[in-house]
Design brief:
Alpha-D-Glucose-1,6-Bisphosphate, Chain A, domain 4, 7-stranded antiparallel sheet, 7 strands, 29% helix
């Protein structure tokens, strides 16, 4: 299973990256996350772990596998038979604005079964998070949970 969503913002890459890297703030602007709890401190650094609660999904611990400061990060979670990789990327557009891409890939013996069970929810959550990230980058003060920030919470 693999899903990706890309959204263009009206701000530059620095502001977009500030929103992307502030993972503990995600629940403020997307209804797809109930909480993001740092287990090793709030810094987005390789090896850091975050416990994420999402409506209708099991609580999952994600471990940061890669950070390219100002550009991208990747985190991973494992469950019996499934490895999930989530990625977040910020790219500069020719006009100076930023494009945010987020995605999720699942592999493993049970990935197909998981896809059957939660594919629609996963697609919806990835879309909500992309929209919320763009809103948080464009207007951090307004990204506190209104419908535009959450994809219709």
């Amino acid at each position: 299973m693999s899903y990706e969503e890309t959204i263009t913002t009206s701000v530059g890459p620095d502001r977009a990256w500030a929103a992307v890297r502030d993972v503990t703030a995600y629940p403020r602007w997307t209804a797809s996350m109930s909480s993001v709890e740092p287990l090793d401190g709030p810094a987005l650094a390789v090896g850091s772990r975050f416990r994420i609660r999402q409506p209708g999904l099991l609580t999952t611990v994600w471990r940061v596998a890669e950070v390219r400061e100002g550009a991208s990060f990747v985190w991973e979670a494992t469950a019996p038979g499934v490895r999930t990789v989530g990625y977040h990327r910020v790219d500069r557009q020719p006009d100076g604005t930023a494009r945010i891409t987020i995605g999720i890939r699942q592999t493993g013996a049970l990935a197909g079964l998981v896809a059957l069970l939660i594919a629609a929810k996963t697609r919806r959550y990835v879309r909500m998070e992309a929209v919320g990230l763009a809103a948080a980058a464009e207007d951090p003060a307004a990204a506190g949970g209104g419908p535009a920030a959450t994809g219709g919470r």
